[in-house]
Amino acid sequence: MSLEVKDLTIDIDGVRAVDGITFSVEDGARVGIIGESGSGKSLTALAITGLLPEGAVATGSVRWNGRELLNIPDREIAEIRGDEIGVVFQEPQTALNPIRTVGRQIAESINIHERLTKPELNRRAIAEAARVRLPSPDSIVKRFPHQLSGGQRQRVAIAIALAAGPRLLIADEPTTALDVTIQAEVLALLDDLVSHDGMSLIFITHDLAVLSQVASRGVVLADGKIVEQAAVADLLTKPQSAVAKGLLRDATATVWRPARASGAADD
């Protein structure tokens, strides 16, 4: 399955926030959308998944496996979201329900798309918790989000996003709120899960060094427009736009493994 975004424009209360961007994600590809805050990268993800805020109007085309997603009924996009396209947001503390156990939330994600018995859902929730490498999964599923660390909550969010077996995962700055050590663990986890399941990936970030760990191609945004599209290896070694050059300067102060980036470019 592939995603094709063509001439996507998003206006919010009459203000142009995303201005005619075009890119594609082929089956199994790993694409990063990168830019500074306010560049339009998260709005692009929200448009793809039908989660734009009130007052936002999207035009152009977003086609998933040939099917147009823009402006289709909420019920139809909800069926695609989760079942075919999974989403991991930046801050799981706000994405997770504070009054439900994490196991119940994982199970609910499964139950939307698969009608299973309660014992079956509980077993699946434990299995999904184990798959994202949560410690003592049979007991951690009984806890509430506030009883977990930030890294554990993000793993729960990943488990929820992947529970229904989507073909495309959109990860919107999933490691920004984590310290460097936990960030590296979550990136490695995402890398392994995407590879194991053969999913496509859209990874959204402002950090080129982080992007180099999980993506092979980068789409650079500034002020709602694409200013550069290139292999991540080229963005690391010979960026063309002023924006990409600035992102490279900022990236050198964070996690940096050039050998990994070179390998990703060969995917």
Automatic annotation (TrEMBL):
Coiled-coil residues: none
Key words, A-Z: ATP-binding, Cell membrane, Membrane, Nucleotide-binding, Transport
Keyword Nucleotide-binding: yes
SUPFAM superfamilies: P-loop containing nucleoside triphosphate hydrolases
GO molecular function, one term: ATP binding
Domain of life, per lineage: Bacteria
InterPro entries to which the protein is assigned, alphabetical: AAA+_ATPase, ABC_Ni/Peptide_Import, ABC_transporter-like_ATP-bd, ABC_transporter-like_CS, P-loop_NTPase
Record-annotated ABC transporter domain positions: 3-248
Cell compartments where the protein resides: Cell membrane
A cellular component annotation (GO) from this entry: plasma membrane
Membrane topology (UniProt): Peripheral membrane protein
Transmembrane domains' residue ranges: none
KW Cell membrane (keyword) present: yes
Pfam families linked to this entry: ABC_tran
CDD domains: ABC_NikE_OppD_transporters
Protein family membership: Belongs to the ABC transporter superfamily.
PANTHER family in alphabetical order: DIPEPTIDE TRANSPORT ATP-BINDING PROTEIN DPPD, OLIGOPEPTIDE TRANSPORT ATP-BINDING PROTEIN APPD
Name the UniProt record assigns to this protein: Peptide/nickel transport system ATP-binding protein
